[in-house]
Amino acid sequence: MTQVHQPLNDFIEYPQTEMLERADANYKQVLRRHSIRKFSDRAVPKAIIEKCILAAGTAPNGANHQPWHFVAINSPEIKAQIRHEAEALERAFYAGRAGEEWLDALKPLGTNADKPYLEHAPWLIAIFSQKRSEEEGEQKANYYVHESVGIATGFLIQALHHAGLGTLTHTPKPMSFLSKVCGRDNSNERPYMLIIAGYPSDDATVPEHALQKKSLEEICTFL
C-alpha cells in the first residue's frame, strides 16, 4: 500500500497557562463521572449516542484496523432479553462462582444479582472486539485488539459523560449470549463490554468506596 501523508493542520497549541487551566478543567469534569446503578427511563436522542460512538471510533488502535463494533440497543424487548440472560449469570456469580475474595471486594459497592437498569436505562451499548477485518474483500489480521478496544471503550465512556449522561460498565461472565442477542454470532467477534447509558434516576447514589481514588504519588512515578 502506498504511503500517503497529510500535513497536521488541526493541532491547536495553547499558551502553557491555558494548557494547565484546560487540564484542570478536564480533571474536575472527570471527577464528576461516576458509575451509577439507578437510571431514569427518560429518552435520550439517538443522535447523541451516534456522536459518542463516532468519538469512540477515533481512538488510537493497532494499524488503524479499528477492530471494534458497537451495537446500540434501545429496543425494550432486546433490553429485557439481555437483562434475563445477564441476571441468570449473575445469580450463579453471587451464589459462589465468583469466589469469596471477589465477592468480598464487591461488598463495599453493594452490588447484587439484580440488574434492573438493563431495562430502565434508555440505551445499552454492546461493544465487540474483532480478530480480523475486511478490506477490499480480503480478510486481514487485527493487532493489539484488546488494547485498542479498551481505549475505544474509554473514549466512549468519556464522550457519554461529556455529553451529560450517566454510565455503567457491565461485564457478565460469560458474555457469549450478547453475540446471539445482538446478531453478532460469528467466530470473528467476541463481546468485550456492555455500557449502560442514560440519565441518573432521582434516587441515584454513589458508594463512598467508589469515591476513594489513589493519590498521584500512588499511581505515578516521574523519572
From TrEMBL:
- Origin: domain of life: Bacteria
Q: Which UniProt keywords apply?
A: Flavoprotein, FMN, Oxidoreductase
In the UniProt record, the signal sequence range is none
Q: What are the residue boundaries of the Nitroreductase domain, all occurrences included?
A: 31-199
> Entry's InterPro entries?
Nitroreductase, Nitroreductase-like, Nitroreductase/BluB
**Gene3D superfamilies, A to Z:** NADH Oxidase
One Pfam entry for this protein is Nitroreductase
* Name by which UniProt lists this protein: Nitroreductase family protein
